[in-house]
Specification:
Elements: E1 8-10, E2 21-26, E3 34-41, E4 45-47, E5 53-61, E6 64-68, E7 71-75, E8 79-82, E9 89-93, E10 99-107, H1 110-117, H2 121-124, E11 128-131, E12 136-139, E13 148-153, E14 161-169, E15 172-177, E16 182-188, E17 194-198, E18 201-205, E19 209-213, E20 219-223, E21 228-237, E22 250-251
Antiparallel strand pairs: 1-19, 2-3, 3-10, 4-9, 5-8, 5-10, 6-7, 6-9, 8-11, 12-13, 12-22, 13-14, 14-21, 15-20, 16-19, 16-21, 17-18, 17-20
């Protein structure tokens, strides 16, 4: 099957002076049970959890502080945060700054709820908070030795979801591959300028854009000399068996 297009949405990081809150729904209806917003705030904002859902926050631009259950967490660009427990999260941008983030909400199926109950308690009780660059590195056969890949959200924290980053300098590529067991999004980060291919389609991926790899397509990524490839991959598995795909990510041994 040849896919005719690669859905892509661009994030607007220009929050006008005097505007204090902004929200843009992204990729609506693209992946069943997944709801995504690009949000920007200049003043304190409370995020109220909803039963039956899990939420991931990816902070992209600006700095701030998160308060949850009496504890504070610093956030800066390229930080991931999961509240985990169902309590109100207070997000405060730093003075005179606009804080931009993606809010990714997963609706839990009945099977997800059952599997979540069996996850290690350390994965589901305490908040998960990490800078991308502090996360576990891995290697993969489809990537060159020059590529730095990291797992920023391991699986078995939220059912059927994992996330990571890929970073390299051109000329380089991520080799062609297929994974019909999962839906995948790419979120391009600062300075990213690469090209994504899926079957017969291709699209340029500039900084701060969200792209959906067509399900089951044979896809790859290339970056030209003098340019950088740097994006977040988000894997949304159709079922937990599909997470076997993650075994292709080989943990790097530390020196």
């Amino acid at each position: 099957m040849l896919h005719q297009n690669i859905p892509i949405v661009h994030l607007d990081l220009d929050l006008p002076e005097g505007q204090y809150h902004y929200a843009q729904t992204m990729m609506e209806g693209e992946i069943a049970g997944i709801f995504i917003e690009h949000k920007a705030i200049r003043t304190e904002c409370n995020e109220v959890p909803k039963d039956g859902y899990k939420t991931i926050y990816l902070f992209l631009h600006g700095e701030g502080t998160l308060s949850l259950a009496g504890a504070d967490y610093a956030v800066a660009p390229e930080t991931v945060f999961l509240p985990n427990k169902a309590e109100t999260l207070c997000i405060r941008p730093a003075p005179q700054q606009a804080l931009h983030y993606l809010k990714i909400v997963s609706k839990l199926t009945d099977q997800d709820q059952k599997e979540l109950a069996g996850f290690p308690s350390e994965n589901t009780q305490a908040p998960y908070h990490a800078k991308f660059t502090d996360c576990q590195a891995y290697v993969e056969p489809i990537k060159s030795p020059n590529t730095v890949s990291r797992t920023i959200l391991p699986n078995k924290i939220i059912p059927r979801i994992a996330m990571g980053t890929v970073q390299t300098q051109g000329p380089d590529e991520v080799g062609a591959h297929e994974h019909p067991m999962l839906e995948q999004l790419f979120l391009s980060l600062a300075n990213n300028n690469c090209t994504v291919y899926a079957d017969e389609a291709k699209v340029d991926l500039p900084p701060y854009a969200l792209l959906h790899i067509p399900l089951g397509s044979r896809h790859s990524v290339s970056v030209e000399e003098g340019k950088e490839l740097y994006y977040v991959w988000m894997d949304f598995f159709l079922d937990s068996k599909g997470e076997e795909w993650l075994k292709t990510h080989i943990i790097e041994e530390e020196d």
